[in-house]
Amino acid sequence: MTVQITVTVNGQPYTRDVEPRLLLVHFVRDELALTGTHWGCDTSNCGACVVHLDGTPVKSCTVLAVMCDGQQVTTVEGLERGGELDAVQKGFAECHGLQCGFCTPGMMLTARWLLDRDPDPDEGRIREAISGQLCRCTGYENIVRSVRWAARQEAGRRGADQGRADRGGADRGGADHGGAGRATGEGTHEGTRA
Amino acid sequence: MQVPARFEYERANSVPHALALLERHGPESRVIAGGHSLIPMMKLRLARPEVLIDINGLAELSALGVEGDALLVGALVRHAELLADPEVGRYFPIFHDAERVIADPVVRNRGTVGGSLCQADPSEDLSAAFAAVRATALVQGPGGVREVPIRDFHRGPYETAVEPGELLTGLRVPIRPGAGSAYEKVERRAGDWPVAAAGSLLRLGDGVIAEAGIGLTAVGAEHFAAPEAEAYLVGRAPGAAAFAEAGRIAAAHCNPRADQRGPAAYKRHLAGELVRRVLTRAAARAGSPEGEE
Ligand SMILES: Cc1cc2nc3c(=O)[nH]c(=O)nc-3n(C[C@H](O)[C@H](O)[C@H](O)COP(=O)(O)OP(=O)(O)OC[C@H]3O[C@@H](n4cnc5c(N)ncnc54)[C@H](O)[C@@H]3O)c2cc1C
Ligand code: FES
Ligand code: FES
Questions:
Q1: CB–CB of B53/B32 below 8 Å?
Q2: Read out DSSP for chain A?
Q3: pLDDT at site A1
Q4: pTM of the full predicted structure?
Q5: Domain end marker among A52, A78, A104
Q6: Is residue A194 part of a domain?
Q7: DSSP-derived secondary structure letter, B95
Q8: According to CATH, what is the number of the domain B62-174?
Q9: In terms of domains, do A40 and A69 share one?
């Protein structure tokens, strides 16, 4: 028996007939060929498979694709906007936040969610947010630095926007910044793309 | 690659619809909430339901808040929601203490309160927390809603008072003005299940303990509670000696088993020490209506 589902992934709706036992991680990787989402432990421990489901990070190896019918999914491929990398992605590049890269997609999606809710997290809050995710290259120091880098960059952009607004030129470019299932909050995204 | 065996999928759109689906599909059907216990069990073929009934769309099970003189926690409330709710922290800091150490933030986004209690794993943290505060479970079947005292809810490992054809819809916790509560756990690493954990609630009056609730998990305490230690405390003045003795009594009456998380004697030691600590913290919090330290 298959069930027809429509899931909006990175802003684009996909309709597929799936077996109910198909896990979200395999739906994204095998049905949609979005292989940025990694599949690791299979036991909801490592976090390599984290995606946003209706704006919230979940471990997609422990979610059935059928349960996502009508919902919004964001994968690592959905982080960049209009060809520009998200501040979190830039932070990982700047601060050597990855070695082999296996844990990276999940780390970046959880970091994005953290910064949307808490734009200036200290090291403790970053480590708590990623505590359900494993980096076997044990690059946690650099991952924390990468997220701090992104937070600083976004704060700087917000400050610059504020400066422009104060001078009466509040031109934010006006593009949509809501995106698939993302809690933008406090204009963090205007910031990254301003 | 771990994949569940084949099953059929139904999505419930109301509680009556979920109950009708449970009745139609019979004993081989199971409800799925967060799926964070059930899907791993299905991958390992420890569970093999023929039909899954998805209750994630049931907004009526997501209620969380004060209703009259009680806190109402819907079965579908996610761990993360219980942790984020300020009223929960004000009246029952024990739940915030516990939720901070249940799994990890991403798992907490998906796992539910109802799923935790119905899973009835002998190491479930929330089972001890709800036992400590003497909650009432609301169980709905074709004949209506039954109220089950939480200490009658767990029948044994992985066994609850929820009969086939029934749903846990939520939990009600009576608010005791001025009571204090706390939870503490020892785990091997961040996000792990407890080696042992304890929770407590204390209400003081006229300089003595008017009500004591003690919950224990992962140490083989019947119904996740420590009634002998509670009885010892009621009517006594709160203090270090009384709390240490209550810990000793609780440790003596639990029945831990050795496993990969540690030997039985170590777990028994933890049970006593954790009970002492949570009583001390609950007493410090008692009396201040703002609850959390
Ligand atoms: C990596 C990891 C770490 C974890 N660490 C901890 C921990 O430290 N401490 C801890 O206590 N727990 C821990 N858990 C368990 C987690 O808290 C529970 O798995 C989860 O919350 C169960 O809830 P669920 O909604 O996912 O339930 P599900 O998996 O959906 O369901 C579990 C069972 O309950 C039944 N059920 C669910 N809802 C209802 C309902 N409303 N009425 C009747 N039956 C129902 C289902 O049929 C099933 O049998 C961990 C889980 C994972 C994956
Ligand atoms: S593959 Fe999902 S948590 Fe490891
Ligand atoms: S970079 Fe290799 S696992 Fe994290």
A1: yes
A2: --EEEEEEETTEEEEEEE-TT-BHHHIIIIIS--TTS----SSSSS-TTEEEETTEEEEGGGSBGGGGTT-EEE-GGGSSBTTB--HHHHHHHHTT--SS-SSHHHHHHHHHHHHHH-SS--HHHHHHHTTT---TT--HHHHHHHHHHHHHHHHHHHHHHHHHHHTT-----------TT----TTHHHHHH-
A3: 83
A4: 0.92
A5: A78
A6: no
A7: H
A8: 3.30.465.10
A9: yes
SS3 (DSSP) at B100: helix
* Shortest distance, CA B97 to any CA of chain A (angstroms): 15
Q: pLDDT below 70 — which residues of chain B?
A: 288-293
Residue B117 near residue B205, CB atoms below 8 Å:
no
The kind and range of the H/E element at B32 are: strand B29-32
Q: What are the pocket residues of ligand 2 if the criterion is a CB atom closer than 6 Å to any ligand atom?
A: A 39-42, 44-49, 59, 61
Q: Which of A24, A45, A78 is the last residue of a domain?
A: A78
| pLDDT tens digit sequence for B179-236 | 999 999 999 998 899 999 999 999 999 999 999 999 999 999 999 999 999 999 999 9
Measured between alpha carbons, how far is B261 from A43 in angstroms, rounded to an integer?
Answer: 18
* Count: domains in chain A: 2
Residues within 6 Å of ligand 1 by CB: A 44-45; B 30-38, 75, 102-103, 107, 111-112, 114-116, 118-119, 124-126, 162, 167-168, 191-193
Residue A129 lies in a domain: yes
Average pLDDT, chain B: 96
**Enclosing domain of residue A52:** 3-78
The token duo for B280 is 């001390």
Place of tokens 């939870």: B183
| Segments of chain A with pLDDT less than 50 | 169-194
